[in-house]
Amino acid sequence: MKGERIVAAPYRWPIRVLLGTLAVISAGLIAVTLLNYHTTSKLAEQALQNTGLSMALEVAAEARALSARDAAALQALVAGQHRREIAYLAIGERDGTIIAHTNPRLVGNLLDDAVFSHVRDTGRLVGEFVVLGTGEEVYELTVPFHIPPVGPGGVVDVSKPRFRIIRIALHTAPARQIVYQAQAQLLFVGVAVLVLTGFGAWQVRTLRRYFVLQQEAAQRERFAGLGEMAAVLAHEIRNPLGAIKGLAQFLGEKQAADPPQLEMTRTIADEATRLERLVNDLLTYARPRPPNRQPTELPGVLDEVLRLMGPATNAAGVVCRIDVSGNAFPISADPEQLKQLFGNLVLNAIQAMPTGGRLTLTQRSVDGKSRTRRAVEVTVEDTGSGISEADLSRVFEPFYTTRSKGTGLGLAICTQITAAHGGTIRVARTGPEGTTILVTLPVEGPANG
Predict the structure, then answer these.
(1) Nearest CA among 54, 95, 52, 102 for reference residue 78
(2) For the chain, N or C: smaller number of CB within 10 Å?
(3) Distance (Å, rounded) from C-alpha 62 to C-alpha 53?
(4) 13-179 is classed in which CATH architecture?
């Protein structure tokens, strides 16, 4: 049966260890990189603030030395600041009037923004990133300072200092370069984590496939040994079993006048027939023959199967129906093996409905794995009690059965026949409302043969 296989518990720990290791490594890389990015951004801003504060203090010291002079001296001081780090520099009065600026045309304008008001009211410096009218982003630092006013006769009155504010804007390119490097590192780590995750997923898929193949190989080896042993036993049992059945039937004819004796001989004959069927199933599974391919009308095969199963369906009170949709074109298959395939499926469906129900066989044409390969799908749908979750993964295993008198070979033989024809078989649906088995067969047979 083709489908998803479950990795056994002993093989799960390497996968879990791999997943855990990848998760820890990925989480660690992301955490360290995010922390580094956050720290770098803070350090870059702190460096700008320190640089701006150092320059502002130098300007403030020189401004104090020029306090006895006129405003033109302050403007000359500010206009002479030609350091490449400075975007602009301004000195303002307490009321916000600009008394000096690197752009002389702005002298006399007002600084009336929220940051200026906050610095004026609290006396604490404030730094922030802002975007100028030119579109450039700068780091703007607003620093309060005091200049002693000039009294009568040009004497400096230190008892009544004048409150002023310096605003200095610094170019952020050097600091931003550090941040960009941290962002690039973050991006690189993100891509690395994605690659690592993809690699981990591929490794997990590879490990799962490896373990599944190991399990399947061990299972095939085990089943092959059981099959060979069963074939030997079946071959040795078949001849004496035929003799027992023949003698039981002969004694039944002789004891027709003795009902108890007749009942016992019939029981012997019936059980011999059941064992004969088991022997035939064992030989079919252990020594399958290749399909004798010929053009086969699938609706005719299904009709023949239901005709042969007529007594069983009537006895169980099961109503049967065949539904063929699309073009019912012939397929390349062995009609006898297909009868065995669908006969086993119909028999299982009947046994799942001991108190009666509905059995529907549906055939439809579908596209195969390529546009040039056509296929047919046949569903065998019953209204029985369904397959339990515990049994669902094992129903196609040989020698696995939930019935006391079952052989566990019916669905295993169905799998063999389907695979020999290049098709697939699976449980399409199961539950309290019934079970649907889906068989897909290529029209032309296997692609390699």
Answers:
(1) 102
(2) C
(3) 14
(4) 2-Layer Sandwich (3.30)
